[in-house]
Amino acid sequence: MGILSDISIADLTYGTAGPLALQLLADMGANIVRVDTPADRVREQQGSFVRLRGRRSIYIDPGAPGADEVLRRLIDRSDVVISEPGLDAKPPLPGDFEALFATNPRLIHCRITAYGDEGPLVDGWAHDHLVAARYGVYDQPGWRDGPTFLPSSVPSLGAALLAVQAIGTALYLRERSGRGQEVSTSLLAGALSYQPGMVSAAVSRPMAATGFLGRSPLGAAPFYSIYECGDGNWLHFACLTQAFQLLAIDIDEELKALGFGTPEAMGSRTKIIDAITARMKEKPFAEWAAILEAADVPYAPSQWTEDLMDDPQVRHAGLLVTINDPVIGPVEQMGPVVRFSSAPWEVPDPAPLPGQHTDQICLGLGFDAAEIESLRWAGAVR
């Protein structure tokens, strides 16, 4: 029994943000029922076996006779319903919020949209990367002129965290007032929340001449960047103290000759970076690490994503867990990202198969065996 085990949530999400928000809530023990439908394509997304874990599934065809009644009963018995459209589908809500609220006044409806409820893009595509492109997420230093594509779903990640925050706040307010409400966020809001520095820079334009980060994939400064070592591993410097920088890698005379540390250095920036690049390739990562440790210079290995699973700090912090997925077997995946001293974390159930718990859920909604069979015969559930 998790810390949110008394909170029931109906999952009507077709995008990426909703399932991620619900994964975080499921990890805290929330009782979540996912409504799988013929239009649902979330399960096809990479990592869905992680995002869909810790919940039960009922399969409903919204267009079939009796489907609306199943949905109504599910929502009437829920504390929270989360809805999010996908690229080509909308959540199967039976009526508007006011109608749902009339029968369940404690209901909290969290809506995740693409661009909000007003404006010229109100009906725009609910697609992570289109939102990211339009609202500056790709305005990053790259290896060529122009935007740089990022595979991470930044708008959805931001929207998911905002949704969890909004739901928690609404539940708190409900404890005080006894009434629920509708809360909303968007992929647009998620994109903006992940670049507050860029947004404030766009307003004040303090570095209009050089760009926010010097507009280079090599970083804002020669020693605030990533370099390849002699063994093919990569090292990230994070030090602006010139004495440490130069002495630690024994390149002070060469860089001083290029004007490093003076206003004239900008004109020699590429040559300075080339000199550091050549120097770093003279030793393997382990040797440089020992040198930098001894000199107390801030640095870190720049690892590949797959290296995270074997990182000793990740394992020591308990951020990995093995879950036996019904389709692909035991899978090591992200563990608890939030811990509570009052409630030990419990390993969540694996992502359910579509409709895996249909009968169990329908019985809990008050349908008897004959009614469930009739709904199945009509195609409303399966």
Task: Please give a structural write-up.
Helix 1 crosses helix 6 and helix 6 (154-177) crosses helix 7. It is built from 15 helices and 11 strands. Residues 205-214 have low confidence and may be disordered. The chain is elongated. The longest helix is centred in the middle third of the chain and has 24 residues, at 154-177. The strands form 3 sheets. The chain has a 6-stranded parallel β-sheet with strand order 3-2-1-4-5-6, sandwiched between helices. Strands 7-8-9 form a 3-stranded antiparallel β-sheet, with helices on one face. It has a two-stranded antiparallel sheet with strand order 10-11. It has 2 domains: 8-195 and 316-378, Crotonobetainyl-coa:carnitine coa-transferase, domain 1 (Rossmann fold), CATH 3.40.50; 226-307, formyl-coa transferase, domain 3 (2-Layer Sandwich). Helices cover 36% and strands 14% of the residues. It is α/β, with parallel strands linked by helices.
Chain-wise SSE layout:
Blueprint (H helix, E strand, L loop, with lengths): L7 E6 L3 H11 L3 E6 L11 H4 L4 E4 L7 H10 L3 E5 L12 H7 L4 E6 L14 H7 L19 H24 L3 E6 H7 L2 H9 L21 E3 L5 E4 L4 H7 L3 H6 L11 H12 L4 H11 L3 E3 L10 H5 L3 E6 L3 E6 L23 H7 L4 H10 L4
Parallel strand pairs: 1-2, 1-4, 2-3, 4-5, 5-6
Antiparallel strand pairs: 7-8, 8-9, 10-11
